[in-house]
Write a structure and sequence with these properties.
It is a single chain. The protein is mostly helical. It is 67% helix and 2% strand. It contains 10 helices and 2 strands; from the N terminus they run ααααααβααααβ. The protein has a two-stranded antiparallel sheet. It starts with a helix and ends with a strand.
Length: 223
């Protein structure tokens, strides 16, 4: 139900909801033996229930349940081929390129090269903290199943974001899937440093993070 509720709030929530649904459905299907298919069906039905009213309304009013997406095949009222082409061209023009090298550099560029108000620079930026927290979380938690699953969901959503309109605000639904592993990594790091009497180093690291966040209404992203 949470998946469907997230997707029904705003279209860009489909990035996170879709990635989480794919991972959850795969786990249900492959890890529950003969009961996997039944649990998968219930999971799918609950996820689809929340946005069903919105999809039905859109379908009735426009003739396209995903309006304005998939206009070429599904059409849509009050929309036109020329308008759709201009709309699609605008979204393809966001970001810093669509070559393979651009996709490879995209995570770093989203952190270090973003600029609010400039669509060629993602119309926003991720805080520099992510360049530290994400590798730290991966290094500290790669053996913990829930952390790996969180990053799989985030990674799938990031790939969908990269293939679409590369605006930082569309990444917001994915940030919790990096925040949770990062918090776990910081807690593990604190426990380790306490055992090795390295609390001073952790205090310095924590104060640096607090300084980065101080006085900022949106410490993890800017749009």
């Amino acid at each position: 139900m949470l998946l469907g509720a997230a997707a029904s709030v705003k279209i860009n929530a489909f990035l996170a909801a879709g990635a989480l649904f794919a991972l959850g459905a795969a786990r249900l299907y492959f890890s529950n033996g003969s009961n996997g298919l039944g649990r998968f069906a219930w999971f799918s039905a609950c996820a689809a229930a929340a946005p069903a009213a919105w999809i039905a309304k859109t379908w009735i009013l426009t003739g396209n349940p995903a309006y304005p997406f998939f206009y070429e095949s599904l059409g849509g009222g009050e929309w036109a081929p020329e308008l759709h082409q201009r709309w699609a061209a605008f979204h393809r023009a966001t970001g810093m390129g669509r070559e393979w090298t651009d996709y490879a550099l995209l995570p770093l560029r989203a952190v270090f090269c973003g600029q609010a108000g400039n669509y060629e620079r993602f119309d926003g930026r991720l805080a520099g903290l992510w360049a530290v927290l994400v590798p730290l979380a991966l290094a500290a938690g790669w053996r913990r199943g829930w952390i790996v699953r969180s990053f799989v969901v985030g990674g799938l959503g990031f790939c969908a974001w990269a293939a679409g309109s590369q605006q930082i605000r569309f990444l917001i639904p994915l940030l919790p899937f990096a925040c949770m592993p990062a918090a776990a990594a910081l807690a593990k790091m604190q426990a380790y440093l306490r055992k090795t009497r390295g609390a001073g180093g952790f205090a310095f690291f924590s104060s640096t993070i607090r300084h980065e966040m101080a006085g900022r209404a949106e410490p993890f992203y800017t749009c």
